[in-house]
Amino acid sequence: MNLEPGGKSDGVLAGPVLRHSAPDAIVLWLVTMERASFTVRIFQGEDLLLDRPLENSEITRLWVGTRAWLNLLTITPETALPQDTRLEYDLGLTADGSEVCKWIRTWAPHLCPEGRERPGFTLKSRLDRILHGSCRRPHHPSPDGLVRVDEELQKAKKLEDVPSLLLMTGDQVYADDVAGPMLHAIQCVIHQLGLYQEVLEGASLSHSKELTSVANAYYHRDELLPESEFNEDLTERFFGGVRKPVFTTANAGNHLISFAEVMAMYLLVWSPEPWACVTSAEPVDDPDELARYRKEQAAINEFRKSLPQAARAMANVPVYMIFDDHDVTDDWNLSALWETTAYEHPFSRRIIGNALLGYLLCQGWGNQPGNFGQLIEQCQRLFESSNGQHELDTAIQDDLIDQLFHFQHWHFSLPTSPRLVVLDTRTHRWRSEIRRSHPSGLMDWESLTDFQHEIMGEDAVVVVSPAPMFGVKLIEMIQRVFTFFGKPLLVDAENWMAHRGAASVLLNIFGHPRTPRHFVILSGDVHYSFAYDVRVRHKQNGPRVWQITSSGIKNEFPNALLEWLDRLNRWLFAPWSPLNWFTKRRRMWISPRLPEGREAGERLWNGAGIGDVRLDDEGAPTAIRQLDAGGGGTIFKQRAKDD
């Protein structure tokens, strides 16, 4: 692909990513270098089911840079597409002013499965196999779990082996933890594509263009905070007391700031194509920083090599996404105090808003496009406001960010069998009634009530909760202790049991007589994998609940520490232990499954990869696996002895 300055585009920067998929609508997300028209073909074997140009009503285009168009295509076939059979699709691009239509095999051959001419997918009538995972950190040394997704798609020959969908359950990008070489790549992409810049308020720099020229451009962005009385207090509260920046990750030295940086990040983690923009420069001089930069460069080089397979995975299975904190910033909305501190300053407010805008355009929008009409109209106004000046209108941008902060429908559900319900555990927080610095509940009373109404009367549901509803008791106890001493940020004290009100309402949902009979909970976030069988104590006809946690796609927990935590948890919270009666979930009977390949009694599995759950006709798991990114993995087997 030609990406030289002034060159003529002949390809696509990223995508297509296959998003919401149903017999009456197929959604594709992609970014092109020019404004383009599209022709779609859908095949069933040799039969051509659809072959026509897309109507204007099926295309939404956002001009996010002088050489970057974000496109969401909602393809609506005249006749419903068949289910439970492989379909293939092709997308023809015609650049404005051209009569040449180019097909995927020409501009993105890496998206075509081996031995096939085009990508494909299957519209499953049941959720019988689900792949799920979270936490994809590009510079982590582990392999990429999306490569394992691609391998599973390639070898699936029977219908029952074809995944129904891929659920990405949080931290698809790390806006708050960026390697030096990745930040350099981001700046190269911004420059080559002319991604729109912006005026910054309340910072020591006045414009996003200065982010590449200031002395603190790499590894020291926490020092770009404004020098004011308010912000000195802000700095003391987070930097001094917690040894973390305003954006409380310990790695905020390269925290993304502008919308252009966020947009470039998505392109670089989802596609091999934008890397053609990136030079081999090393933009740091300090010896220690240069050594760190080169170490990170080695990890980024490995990540980049596997991107064609990761992109192919996302083009060949329906993908649904929900945010967690790192998609925006670490500990996002952890407590009422965090919210007040972060949102009342214009600079931190803009940074959070830009990350949420990137999530809207690159993740949330594709889940259920019909929910985002007004926001997308405002996005169009924002990008059209540049008027060739390569700069976003400040007033429109701030107004859009306000709308994003008050948006109520990031969560979503699908009328699948069983029903899929994806929770927003970040923007409907139940603030602590005890102290503003204590962790908020992951969902407030109103959103939990809406969730209960959503699932009542269903025989079975699959629920996505980015953080596990039932986690490791010892770790939750440690988080509780740190919260008691006023330091919840030190241990990321975010779990369902950390807030009395939210925990009580959640547990009451499981005890309701009309709650689903089968209740599968898919989670991530914690960087290790486990599976629990859960029941309501003293209730014979209560629901069967499975807590299944897979994390991360490209991230891992420190192995030695995890082994000690696993061992201590078994000792301290054995079935006979009185400590169990001090936990909020004492009403629940919990039996951990044991992963094959671990030592006797060990319950936690540590290895980057992807979760794999198979469900029977009633929505109950028949197999719970963790597929390691580098091959192999484990199956979680039910214990004979209860815990």
TrEMBL record:
Gene3D superfamilies: PhoD-like phosphatase. This is Alkaline phosphatase family protein. It comes from Marinobacter flavimaris.
